[in-house]
Amino acid sequence: MMKIRHCVERSNVEGSLIITDPSKIRHVVVKAGKILSLSGPIDPKSHLNLDYPIHVAKNCIIAEKFEIGSKIEIANGGFIFAQVNPTGYQHYGKYDYSQNLQRMIELVNKRRNFNANASIEESKIKPSSTNVSNNESINI
């Protein structure tokens, strides 16, 4: 199982391992010490909200850059973490995680459906270079 981690870009970390701009934190999945996938910036209302302490970002792994394949900083066999300065948190008020999670799931499903439909349309336009016999199945 892969773990989603809070991550910050090296250029956003001071020498004392304090994050300069916590609104630029992103979620990443790491494999073999490199970014496998990444999200957009975090939502401060859920990750930097003193009124919603359940999922605040505190410690973040450090990436060379926010790019797929970018290296994660590691020392002595473990990740190096940068921390959000306590002044980076604000009072944003009540946060409805369930509603926002449902909205995120809907957006992900729309994107998946769009990408699947685009792939099907692309395959109709471009001739296939593989010959498939009538007995073989094609997975799209």
Overall geometry: flat
Count of distinct structural domains = 2
DSSP strand count: 8
Sheet/helix structural class: alpha/beta
In sequence order, what are the helices and strands, one letter per element?
EEEEHEEEEH
C-alpha-based Rg, rounded: 20 Å
Spans of at least 5 consecutive residues whose pLDDT stays below 50 are 125-140
The average pLDDT is: 82
Number of helices: 2
Give me the side-by-side strand order of the main sheet: 2-8-5-1-3-4
- Which sheet architecture does the biggest sheet show? 6 strands, mixed
Measured by DSSP, the beta-strand proportion falls in 25-35%
Description:
Helix content is 24%, strand content 25%. By secondary structure, it is of the alpha/beta class. The chain folds into 2 domains: 85 residues, no CATH class; 31 residues. The chain has a 6-stranded mixed β-sheet, with no helix packed on it. A two-stranded antiparallel ribbon has the order 6-7. The radius of gyration is 20 Å and the shape is flat. The chain starts with a strand and ends in a 15-residue tail after the last helix.
